[in-house]
Amino acid sequence: MNRVILQLLAVGLCFAVVQSLQCYKCPVALLDLCITSKETCGSGEVCYNGVGEAAGFLKIKKKGCAKVTECNKTENVHFPANTNNTVYTITKTCCSDDLCNYAPGLPGTSGLSLALATITALFMANILV
């Protein structure tokens, strides 16, 4: 009997681990440059791509995990918080598959690889000039 209970717990644990949703995370992207990482969503959260606008012309993009109730809604982002000073508006479009919020941006690009690419480009520019 104990063996059956342990097997059921092991199977349940596998399902619990498998059900964790992974999403790309980008806190804020300007000019379509988004350095992403991966994050695991909590219970009741899905992946999102957020597209917004600041000052009427500057495009803002974000991605990460969001509560289902925040999906397909436009929200005003205030700074400082709890004031009426709207910095930008953003609309979150959601999806519920692992890493489904990959575009737009540079998915999987880490800060280190981006820095390495920049240093290499500068080095090559100095050699060629």
TrEMBL record:
GO CC, alphabetical: plasma membrane; side of membrane
Compartment list: Cell membrane
The organism's place on the tree of life at top rank: Eukaryota
InterPro entries found in the cross-reference section: LY6_UPA_recep-like, Snake_toxin-like_sf, SPACA4/Bouncer
Coiled coil: none
Signal peptide: 1-20
Occurrences of domain UPAR/Ly6 (ranges): 19-102
A family per Pfam: UPAR_LY6
Membrane topology: Lipid-anchor; GPI-anchor
GO biological process: sperm-egg recognition
Keywords: Cell membrane, Disulfide bond, Glycoprotein, GPI-anchor, Lipoprotein, Membrane, Signal
Record has Membrane as a keyword: yes
Family from the record: Belongs to the SPACA4/bouncer family.
Protein name per Swiss-Prot or TrEMBL: UPAR/Ly6 domain-containing protein
Organism of this sequence: Zoarces viviparus (Viviparous eelpout)
